[in-house]
From TrEMBL:
Name listed for the protein in its UniProt record: DUF3105 domain-containing protein
Disordered: region residues: 1-25
Transmembrane domains' residue ranges: 33-54
Taxonomic path: Bacteria, Bacillati, Actinomycetota, Actinomycetes, Kitasatosporales
Compositionally skewed regions (Basic and acidic residues) per UniProt: 15-25
The entry's keywords: Membrane, Transmembrane, Transmembrane helix
Organism: Streptomyces purpurascens
Length: 217
C-alpha cells in the first residue's frame, strides 16, 4: 500500500473513531436527560402525594374534631357537676338506669374491651365511666346477632365494657360519664358515633386512668 493510501486509511479510521465517540457522548447526554427528567417526575410525584396525604390527614382531623363537638342524635345528657364522685361501700340509688355517673365503689370494672355475659356491679361500672370508658348494655329484647355484633365491637375497643342489664328500659344502651344513648340495633350508626366521641372523650373526669387490673366479675 502506498503512503498516500495508508494515510487515507488512517484518516478514515480516525474519522470513524471520532464518529463513535460523538455517538457515545450523544447517548450519554440523552441518558442524563432521561435520568434527570425521570427523577424530577418522581420527586414531583412524591411531593404531590405527600401534600395530598397531609391534606387528607388534616381533613380527617378536622372531621373528627367537628364530630367531637356535635351531639349524637338522641343522646341524653346530665350535668356532670351534679354527679357525685365520692368512693362509697354501700349500694347507690342512681336516678338513671344504667347510671351515667355519681358516687361509686373504689374498685372499677376492668374495661379494656371487656365483654361480661352476666350482670356486673353498677357502682363498679360507674367507676369505669369515670376513667373514660363507655359501658354498652342490653336487655332480653336484644337479638342474639346484635349482642354478638356489639361484643365483637367492644372486644376490639379499649376503654369499653359490655354487660346485660335486664331492668333497663332500652333494648341497647350506651353510657358514658354524663351521657347516654338508646338504640334498637347494633347496626345503628350512632353506636359508632357514640364510641368515637366518648371513649376517653372530653367528658372524662379522670382521663388516662387505668381500665385494666380492675374487677373481672
Amino acid at each position: 500500500m502506498s503512503k498516500t493510501s495508508k494515510k487515507a486509511a488512517a484518516v478514515s479510521r480516525k474519522a470513524r473513531v471520532e464518529e463513535m465517540r460523538r455517538a457515545d457522548r450523544a447517548r450519554e447526554r440523552r441518558n442524563r436527560v432521561i435520568t434527570i427528567t425521570l427523577s424530577t417526575v418522581i420527586v414531583a410525584g412524591l411531593a404531590g402525594f405527600g401534600v395530598y396525604a397531609l391534606n387528607k390527614a388534616d381533613e380527617k382531623d378536622e372531621q373528627q374534631a367537628a364530630a367531637a363537638k356535635k351531639p349524637v342524635r338522641g343522646e341524653q345528657t346530665w350535668d356532670a357537676k351534679k354527679l357525685g364522685r365520692d368512693h362509697v361501700q354501700a349500694a347507690v340509688d342512681y336516678p338513671m338506669n344504667p347510671p351515667v355517673g355519681g358516687d361509686h365503689n373504689q374498685a372499677w370494672m376492668t374495661c379494656d374491651g371487656t365483654v361480661y355475659t352476666k350482670a356486673i356491679g353498677k357502682e363498679n361500672a360507674v367507676h369505669s365511666l369515670e376513667h373514660g370508658a363507655v359501658w354498652v348494655t342490653y336487655n332480653d329484647k336484644a337479638a342474639d346477632a346484635d349482642i354478638k355484633a356489639l361484643g365483637d365491637k367492644v372486644s376490639k375497643t379499649p376503654y369499653t365494657l359490655m354487660s346485660p342489664v335486664d331492668d333497663q328500659s332500652g333494648t341497647i344502651m350506651l353510657s358514658a360519664w354524663g351521657y347516654q344513648l338508646t338504640v334498637d340495633k347494633a347496626s345503628d350508626p350512632r353506636v359508632e358515633q357514640f364510641l368515637t366521641k366518648y371513649v376517653q372523650g372530653s367528658q372524662t373526669p379522670e382521663p388516662g386512668a387505668a381500665c385494666t387490673n380492675g374487677l373481672t366479675q
